[in-house]
Amino acid sequence: MNLATQLADGLAALGVSLPDETQARLLQYLALIRKWNRVHNLTAMREPEMILIRHLFDSLAILPHIAGSRIVDVGSGAGLPGIPLALVRPEWQVVLLESNHKKAVFLQQARIELKLNNVEIVAERVENFRSASGFDTVISRAFSDLADFVKLAGHLAIEGGGRLAAMKGVYPHEELAQLPPPFVIENVFPVVVPGLEAKRHLVMIKPGV
C-alpha cells in the first residue's frame, strides 16, 4: 500500500474528509520532514509510514476536541500538531512557538513551501511570549509535564474561554494529581490513532480565575 492510500484510509478512519489538494499538501509536509530530518534531526522516526501514523495521524486525532479559531502550538518542533491542524483547518489561525533556532528555520521553510497563510512562526521561549489577543486553545505535544506546561503557557489562554490541551500517551494519573491551582482538569479524552496500538490521551485544562 502506498503512502497516499494509507493517508486516505487513515483520514477515513478519523472521520476527516479533505480535498485531494489538501491530502497532497499533507504528503508534501511528510516529505519535507524526511528531507530536513537528514540534517536537523527533527524526529527519531525515519520510515515514512511511521511518520504518517505516529506524527500526522496522532496530530489529527485530536481534531474533535479542539475549539476556537486561534491556536498556539507550544514547543512545536517539526510543526506537530500545528501544521497538520493548519492544513486541514485553513480557517484557523495557528502560531507555532519554537525556541530552537534550527527547528524554527524548518518551520519557516515549511510555511513557505506549503503556502500556509494561516500560520505564524515565533522563535521564542514560551514563558517570554505574549499575545495581545490570546488563544482559544494552547496545545502541547511531548513538551513537558502538565505542571510545567500550565506554569509556562497558562498565560496564553484567553481569559474566560481559553483552554490548554496536552497530548499524552498513557493516562497521566501522577501528572493530573500534581496540577497546581488555579488550573482545573476539564476532561481527559482517550484518543484513537489509526494504525497505532499505543494508548493516547488528550488532557483538557481550564485556567482558573
Automatic annotation (TrEMBL):
Binding site for S-adenosyl-L-methionine: 75, 80, 126-127, 141
GO molecular function: methyltransferase activity
Keyword line: Cytoplasm, Methyltransferase, rRNA processing, S-adenosyl-L-methionine, Transferase
Localization annotation: Cytoplasm
Keyword Methyltransferase: yes
Main subcellular localisation: cytoplasm
Superkingdom of source: Bacteria
Function comment: Specifically methylates the N7 position of guanine in position 527 of 16S rRNA.
Pfam family, one: GidB
Protein EC: 2.1.1.170
Family: Belongs to the methyltransferase superfamily. RNA methyltransferase RsmG family.
Protein name listed in UniProt: Ribosomal RNA small subunit methyltransferase G
Reactions catalysed, as given in the entry: guanosine(527) in 16S rRNA + S-adenosyl-L-methionine = N(7)-methylguanosine(527) in 16S rRNA + S-adenosyl-L-homocysteine
InterPro entries: rRNA_ssu_MeTfrase_G (IPR003682), SAM-dependent_MTases_sf (IPR029063)
Biological processes annotated in GO: methylation
